[in-house]
Input
Amino acid sequence: MSKIKFRNELKFFINHLQYFTIRQRLRNLMQPDEHAGSTGEYHIRSLYFDDFSNTALNDKLGGFRDRKKYRIRIYNGQDKVIHFEKKLKRMDYIAKLKEPLTREMYNRIMAGDYEVLNVPDKPLFTEIYNEMHDNLLRPKVIVDYVREPYVCHNGNVRITFDKDLRTGLHAVDIFDPELAPVKAIDEDLIILEVKFDEYIPGYIQTALQLEGLNRQSASKYVICRKFLKYNSWEDY
Output
């Protein structure tokens, strides 16, 4: 497996007024991501996995600095690009490892046939396969949202506005045409994510005015898992 490259990641909740203000500034300073297409947006749907101890959930809630999550991700509801991903967190730094899946591989995984991941020359697949066998890693929740992304090569900065966060509740098939995700954030908030390598150029920092924003730590996975509470006394 190649050397893992970690990047800085900052997250904020913003309201619509803040969104329109920041977006207007950024449009003059950054380029839309090439994957966004003519609308400037694309749809992301992820299926998150967790083990029998809910380690990913509990490590996040417990404030552990070093964490990991596994997910299958698709774009715009299509199966042309399917990735099994591992997201690593080290304090404010993140890294992502991923391997492509075919639709057939996805179908087999969802049917409980994890042998499809027993591929010795694919370390990430081998790791996930072992997690599924040893720790009962299983699908937990669908996380669904619309992303508006901007990029700047100076500092390798990527800024995204994630809107209309929804959860699939107890459904776990990301290709289910009957899936009707429900709104996962009570207020009509947008999640602003700022990712960069070593630094953010000063002119982008000025445009963002991060000091005045509401820094947030709750991941989309945790936000959506709260809808799966089986008991009224549970509180994530």
